[in-house]
Design brief:
By secondary structure, the protein is of the alpha/beta class. It has 2 domains: 4-63 and 98-213, Glucose-6-phosphate isomerase like protein, domain 1 (Rossmann fold, 3-Layer(aba) Sandwich); 71-97, no CATH class. 54% of the residues lie in helices and 10% in strands. Strands 2-1-3-4-5 form a 5-stranded parallel beta sheet, with helices on both faces. Helix 1 (4-15) packs antiparallel against helix 9 (190-213) and helix 4 runs antiparallel to helix 5 (87-94). It starts with a helix and ends with a helix. The relative contact order is 0.20. The model has no long low-confidence stretch (mean pLDDT 97).
Length: 214
């Protein structure tokens, strides 16, 4: 019998047969992320333009319920209820468990300050150096695989002891050489690559939710 999270991978390939060659890489990416979360780590996500929007989208799927309910643990519910019987009930019933994820492109004040004052190509690397810890994962999105700021972020991540997952187009670019796992979707034109990135990361989010909130 196929373990439950992997049924989502089967569904993905059934809906998008063109992604069949990426099956093993997607499974490996899931395993790296799951290991990170099992040990209390976090996911850092970096991308430019549409890929920056994708990074925010991924955070939205991981930090709240995607397709399954994620009630808070009973110990948390009791603690907030004891702290405040009115607001505590609202928190206990309304909050959900999340899988920690940060979209590095969402930090506008930091990004613009860094770009104005320092080397713009190092904007994501600086955040990885500041936020990242050994055991965390950097998910690096680049349709070409050659975006300099993404390459710098990957190098900083490796130096800090993070695992690096690439999500690119067919060629992988220089990024593929700097990752532990690279998912190279079989397109080269930017918008076509991005069209395939979305079902891939939705699948990963479904697999993670199944693994931690079944």
């Amino acid at each position: 019998m196929i373990p439950e999270p992997y049924r989502h991978l089967d569904t993905l390939i059934g809906r998008y047969p063109v992604l069949a060659p990426n099956r093993d890489a997607i499974a490996q990416a899931f395993e790296l992320m799951a290991c990170c979360y099992e040990t209390g780590g976090q996911l850092l996500i970096a991308g430019n333009g549409g890929s920056a929007a994708d990074a925010g989208h991924i955070v939205g799927e991981l930090m709240k319920s995607f397709c399954r309910p994620r009630p808070m643990p009973e110990a948390f519910r009791q603690a907030v209820l004891e702290a405040d019987p009115v607001l505590g009930r609202r928190l206990g019933e309304g909050l959900q468990q999340g899988l920690p994820a940060l979209a590095l492109g969402a930090h506008t004040a930091l990004a613009t300050a860094w770009t104005n004052d320092c080397d713009p190509d190092l904007v994501y690397a600086q955040q990885v150096a500041g936020y990242g810890h050994e055991g965390d994962v950097l998910l690096a999105l680049s349709t070409s695989g050659n975006s300099t700021n993404i390459l710098c972020a990957a190098l900083a991540a490796r130096a800090k002891g993070l695992r690096v997952i690439g999500l690119t187009g067919a060629h992988g670019g220089r990024l593929a050489e700097k990752t532990d796992c690279c998912i190279r979707v079989p397109e080269t034109e930017t918008y076509k690559v991005q069209e395939l990135h979305l079902p891939v990361y939705h699948c990963l989010c479904l697999m993670l939710e199944e693994a931690f909130f079944a």
